[in-house]
User: Fold RmlC-like cupin from Decorospora gaudefroyi.
Amino acid sequence: MFTPIVLLTALLPTLITSASTTTPKSRTVQASLNSALRTAATAFDRAALLPNNEDWYYDFPAHSTYNAPTGAVINADAATFPALTGMGISIALLKLAPCGMLPPHLHPRATNLVTAITGNTTTYMIGENGVGLRQVDLVPLRVTIFPQGSLHMMQNNGCEEALLISALNSDDSGTLNILPALWSVSQPVIKAAFGDDNLNIEALGNDIPDVGTGAIIGSAECKSRCGI
Ligand SMILES: *[C@@H]1O[C@H](CO)[C@@H](O)[C@H](O)[C@H]1NC(C)=O
Assistant:
């Protein structure tokens, strides 16, 4: 006979997911200003809410993750740069460390145009089931597009930092990193999704990086080539 405690103990490992469940904090710096800008009666009234020259620029280097060793995605959007509220556009600086990557993710509310400034970064994009992978080497001043909702990722191939500018047609594009998202689901269900009930999900999911700064360190091939 199993007591409820024994049953619970037996079930527990399958209920606990292995990826970190750290909830990212809101990035919104002035929520009341966002609300006021959204509800201003006219463009004139809206302008009065942004009276200073300082309300009209955003400095990427001032962001706390600008010098993160893995690199970072730094968003100038409604959350961080309130003048963008209601403008339907935002921009991000992508800083990729040597061999750095942006792990697989999608933007639920925006199409994304990415322009390389420095480096050589390979991008991978899958638009929907059946259409196949599109792979682009983003060399300086080359642009690629990730349509709204498409799965995409990228890796800096170089041993130097790569800089890219990412434009999005929403002031609140959102980002979903698919591996931490998938690993928040219970293990038996993930195993079924992989088509292998014996898959060692726990080992597989143990080291999925947190969303963190948005950028992570890339492939072993690149790291060994660059002596990292
Ligand atoms: C960019 O990197 C890829 C992958 O290493 C390489 O095949 C390609 O030749 C590089 N492009 C340039 C212009 O260096």
